[in-house]
Fold this sequence. Notes:
The chain contains 9 helices and 14 strands. The chain starts with a helix and ends with a strand. It is α+β, with helices and mostly antiparallel strands. The strands form 2 sheets. Strands 7, 8, 9, 10, 11, 12, 13 and 14 form an 8-stranded antiparallel sheet that branches. It is elongated. It has helices spanning 2-16, 21-39, 43-74, 90-101, 119-129, 173-179, 203-216, 266-270, 324-328; strands at 77-82, 106-111, 138-142, 153-158, 163-167, 181-186, 240-242, 245-254, 259-265, 279-284, 287-292, 305-309, 314-319, 334-339. Helix 4 (90-101) links the parallel strand 1 (77-82) and strand 2. The chain folds into 3 domains: 2-72, no CATH class; 75-224, Rossmann fold; 240-339, Bacterial fluorinating enzyme like (Elongation Factor Tu (Ef-tu), domain 3), CATH 2.40.30.90.
Amino acid sequence: MHRFIEAISWRAGDGLRHAPQQARIPIVSACTAEKFCAQRPTPALKCWAFTLVALTLLATPRLDHAGDAEHAQQAPIIVFMTDYGTFDEAVAVCKGVMLSIAPDARIVDLTHHVTPYSIADGARFLSHAAPYFPAGTIFVGVVDPGVGTQRRAVIAKSKRGQYFVVPDNGLLTFIEDRDGIEGAREITNAAWRWPGPVSATFHGRDIFAPAGAHLARGEDWIGAGPAVPHLVRLALQPPVVAADGVRGRVVALDGPFGNLITNVSAALFQKLGYRLGDPVRIKIGALELTAPYVNTFGDVPIGQPLVFIDSSGLMSLAINQDSFAKVHGVTPPAELFVARRK
């Protein structure tokens, strides 16, 4: 009995040796019970000691899992977006920089396939993703056609309590419009950059990744550099409502599917008077067509066009199980006209 309890107690103690002090109390109790059993080895006491040690073993994995869950909840989140692609080492290098500075960070890839140089696409992705992450999340976004020029590298804090580490080139236009910006800082403090010379062409590695990691490590973002009074904004062209319909733009494609994303909101589209099932008259550049307004792709036969409201609340056009962009040769940005319902 003595050897059995000693072996069981050692295994439980090994599993809990890094646990808080209160987690170690059962092991001390087990050892005390063992000594007590040695002095008064009655069957009842032996049974009591065996039961106590068994309960300790059952509690051990629960304590370990609880610690893992608590650590996962406390680990900072970095959401990483670039137009680098995944063809070479650039994304991995940036992640290595982040983890070298903040090894506990959880890095979530938003996308690394933003249309190259398309600040508007990057701004749209950031805006669409941000509402699904908690306050305190750090977004590192690198779509930076002006890398190495006089454009600023900044950290901005939204009024939702999220941080954005980005080039100051308009990437936060939609975030600012919807969530508001509490403040912004230019990243000038050399301690917030990767050690050594700063490359003129890889600020993702040398400025943005390390700055995001310093935030994840808990450093005060005010220390990154001086305040920035105003952020650069994209020159947006909002839709225009006229007597005959709405004039807007095709602003992007929906990933590999070739659906057209427009800047016409669901609310604005509804003002045209359409109901589900109605044919919608549309002009995209020189292309004119009519397509039904439906809920989803499968509401029309395969190969047929449709008008629908996408998951971001924007009017979109698609072909069921085909690419609208390829079939009709549409490349964003493109002028769009949606006629009022007759």
